[in-house]
Structure prediction request, 78 residues.
Amino acid sequence: MESFLILSDITDEEVIAVGNSIRDLPRLRKLYGDGRWRKMKGVALIQLRSGHIRKAEIHWYEAHGIGRKEFKRKGYLD
Prediction:
């Protein structure tokens, strides 16, 4: 799994899935607890392990009271 650091605010946030339409919902509830889970996507500047800075689309899960979890880079936009 590639690690990266988010350098900017996440823009163009959009909900991809909510509740039971999230395939990983049972795992998320087991790891982080019950909540109204949403799968989200957005755009941010990230710094890769190599030190390069890129604009990328990122995906993550979030729930009220739990926060944002499991960020994934899905593609570069620059």
In short: Residues 25-32 form the longest helix (8 residues). The chain has a mean pLDDT of 95.
